[in-house]
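Box 3.1 — From sequence to structure: DYW domain-containing protein
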Amino acid sequence: MAAVIKKVLSIILRLLALAATLVDIVVMAALVAFYGKSGDLGNARKAFDKMPDRSIVAWNSMISGYEQNGEAREVFDSMNERNVVAWTAMISGYGMNGYAHQAVELFDEMRRRGPCPNSITFVAVLSACAHAGLVKEAYSFIIEEVPKEPAAAIWTAMLGACKMHKNLDLGVQVAEQLLNVEPENPGHYVMLSNIYALAGRMDRVEMVRNVMIQKCLKKQVGYSTIEVDHKTYLFSMGDKSHPETNEIYRYLDELMSRCREAGYAAVPESVLHELEEEEREFALRYHSEKLAIAFGLLKMSHEAPIRIIKNLRMCEDCHWAIKYISVVANREIIVRDKLRFHHFKDGSCSCLDYW
Ligand SMILES: [Zn+2]
Ligand SMILES: [Zn+2]
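Predicted structure (token representation):
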């Protein structure tokens, strides 16, 4: 008995020690951010140096503190411990502040004499390039080097950049790379056919569709879940199984008409998702995430953010529509789709349309 009590006590003590370390990290990161924002860089650096484990958040706070107060690169250069997180934070710092060329230069330097870039570094440099329209440059220096895992996430970010800058020729090449990495993923074929459609290559759209049929690849059925009052509700496209279906559809229609008044129009290429002709118009309007959001808005208190989990990648139209919904319903909406979190607030999304 005594031995058991002793073991339990030792586990409790270890947990308390771990909790104290975590609290330390959180408090220190907050201190770094506080000192950095108030211009007290000496104390920001002291708090930063004392941190036992520096997260990317702490690096970002430290670097943006220096950026707001004039010089960041010197500090980065003077730091002894420059791991992959530090390099990535500096590259993304340049990117977010519109210094795409500097981001690319630093990435180049990292490849020559820094640690091996990881997938987050690739996404950071790609985003920097994409914002500045340097899509070709990004493609030229990543093509050989993209790590095998998780290459799909990197190519998808690149594809987002191509679409945003209407660089459709490159978009086709990138989508083809995506297919090389994951040849059996039906979602990539859909993306490739969408990019062909945007480029006006309807013959190719048809070809991709035929390849999918030959390979017996079917688009997975999309569904979204939402938790309301400790209960999880699941919605599929055009779902009418919920007891309050009529109310949900009526509310969603009303919501979308308010979105249209605010400037929303359906995104045409989303209509090219792999669906039968007669399903398309209906499908776009009643995708599962839209139904789940309407249900959440109807049922949850006004302050609570709406949280949705979707099993597939969100389509362009839903992404566009949810931005408007966040404005007309004045609500934060968080969607975790197959690739990432999307945090919609005041008409924009945290992914900045790269996903
Ligand atoms: Zn959708
Ligand atoms: Zn997003």
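Summary of the box: The pocket of zinc ion (ligand 1) is lined by residues 287, 314-315, 317-318 (CB under 6 Å).
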